[in-house]
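Example: Phosphate transport system ATP-binding protein.
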Amino acid sequence: MIDIAKIALPGNQLERRKVERRKYARKNLSRATVSRDDRQTVGEVTVADPRIRCTDVNVYYENKHALRNVTIDIGCQEIIAMIGPSGCGKSTFLRCLNRMNDTIESCRVTGSIMMDGQDINDKSIDVVPLRAKIGMVFQKPNPFPKSIYENIAFGPRIHGLAKDKVELDEIVVTSLKRAGLWEEIKDRLDQPGTSLSGGQQQRLCIARTIAVNPEVILMDEPCSALDPIATAKIEELMDQLCTNYSIVIVTHSMQQAARVSHRTAYFHLGDLIEVGTTEQIFTAPAHQLTEDYITGRFG
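Written out as structure tokens, the predicted fold is:
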């Protein structure tokens, strides 16, 4: 098992996060068992105030059944981590949440993903505003080949979020401050975004995402290409952002999942095996497959 108490964090951040997780669990979670074909997902799959509600989500790539009957809620103001071995379906599920799988011709998604009373897979849904509402930060930083300022201003401009240059400037500054980047780059906004370090580029991408007022931020291994110092900054930023946004993070680092998330979901071979509070998943998992994975018996 991972001893959460031994995960290094500055000062009393770890204890504070543990207290916050317990408060979140008492307020929002109810334990449930969801029947599926020949297995069951165990744990806290539902929350009291869901931002997104996924029910029986299946993903097919031509004849390959990549994700099977996934049922889970994404709560308001929570960080939920998706863990599991490579190829287990966690990134496939993440891409379902803002229809990034639409870009794959052979992909077919069934089941319902409800947000604001609508199924996001309904043909009437415009994916452009959907992907503003449910933003995504990728594994490798991908700033636009534009200035730092234009990286942030681009989204608000095309979505009509600013009526003039003054409002646009305010959005840029606020987004960079929320991403913890303003003090580092405020004197070089006209320089290319690609001139920043890897960690700064990733925070720039986060600032670009929050500039269009999302409700949910999806993160697909956002720290895998970063050094430990840059990783720590991203994790601290996530801790701050979850007061305003729901965050879903896919990570191969169980230590990272234990540090940053309120809940953790374990995937295995296309099945969602277990969902629970992060403390419970890493100290007393209910399913043998979960225990085998976090103790290193396979993965």
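The first helix runs from residue 13 to 28.
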